[in-house]
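Sample entry as discussed:
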Amino acid sequence: MLDSAYANVDALSTELHATKLQLSSKCEAIKILTQRLEETKKEAEQFKLMAEQLQERYRSLKQTLGSDVSSSPSVNCPPRKAFINLKVKLNESEMHNRILETELNNIRRRNSELLNDIAVLQKSCARSQPEAFENSSNEKKSFSAQERESLIAQLELKTMEVL
């Protein structure tokens, strides 16, 4: 019985030691994560500061250029100012181009989805037409087929409008 008590004490001692090691490793992990969090916060602050500086620089450039940015460079305009105006316009047009490309990709994706929907509708119409002919009179058959064709035509028109 004394041996089993010593065995239990040894087991508990070993378990306590293992738990202490786990606790210390978790404390170290928390320290490392805290340090990384602080570094990330500092980086975020630096990025915010850089963004603010860039915005301020953009505003000052815009003010420096004044109304010349919106108007085309005139003959009386010095070459450097004309170059800056053209560069600003080029930058703005590139940004506008990126926006339009994104919109075009979204429209193409939507078009693809609509074409898939049309294909599914056509398949379901093809499957349901024989059932409709079997279950309804001739008047209802022609009306439901016309109705389906009308819906498909409407979907195709909507797809063309999106393009």
